[in-house]
Design goal:
202 residues; Jelly Rolls; 11% helix; alpha+beta; five-stranded antiparallel β-sheet; three-stranded antiparallel β-sheet
Length: 202
């Protein structure tokens, strides 16, 4: 009887060891107290800026409208409009070359534009100008030459659409050999013309 009691006791002891081995092997730890949060003054808190949301839009970016051009009254250059039928050359005595002032005045300071009709067979006396000019041939063939004496053999034929320059104080001459010639001159005044003394007849 005593032997049976001993065996039963040993059996319960072994079972108890297996059942409570996890709790027995763990060291005893006191219960943890909840941590108290330390309050931080408002001025010391670091706040992060809100995240910027990137949105895509199908709308095109706004483009500023172009500057509105100045009206004629607000500009320093007057608004002039010449139609071909409005440009009428004045009557001139034979041998003269009528001229129309399209813009400005050759006798005053500033930009000027003139248009000149050189009648057929006209030969201009060699002359110079105090200002440098640019010349465009609008119609006809302008025979242009340089020098103090008129020389038919040294002229250069400049048909309609041609462009050339007349430097200041450089003697030159023009011949409308084949028909009427119309030229347009652009320069900066004031302008003056000096004729070269004739050394031989034209």
């Amino acid at each position: 009887m005593e032997r049976t009691t001993v065996l039963v006791a040993i059996f319960f002891a072994i079972v108890s060891v297996f059942l409570f081995s996890g709790q027995v092997s763990r060291p005893f730890a006191p219960p943890q107290q909840p941590q108290q949060r330390q309050s931080v003054p408002v001025q010391q808190r670091q706040t992060k800026p809100p995240a910027q949301r990137q949105t895509t839009s199908s709308r095109a970016p706004t483009v500023p409208s172009p500057t509105t051009p100045l009206a004629a009254s607000e500009s320093t250059m007057p608004a002039l409009f010449w139609l071909p039928e409005d440009i009428r050359f004045p009557e001139m005595p034979p041998g003269g070359s009528p001229t129309v002032k399209l813009f400005g005045d050759p006798g005053s300071e500033g930009l000027y534009v003139t248009r000149t009709l050189i009648p057929h067979e006209t030969k201009t006396i060699p002359h110079t100008h105090s200002d440098s000019r640019t010349v465009t041939v609008l119609s006809g063939v302008c025979y242009y030459g340089r020098g103090e004496e008129f020389d038919e053999g040294r002229v250069m034929p400049m048909p309609a659409g041609s462009f050339f320059t007349e430097p200041a104080e450089v003697p030159h001459y023009i011949w409308a050999r084949d028909g009427d010639v119309i030229v347009q001159t652009t320069a900066v005044g004031p302008s003056s013309t000096q004729f070269v003394p004739v050394k031989r007849g034209l």
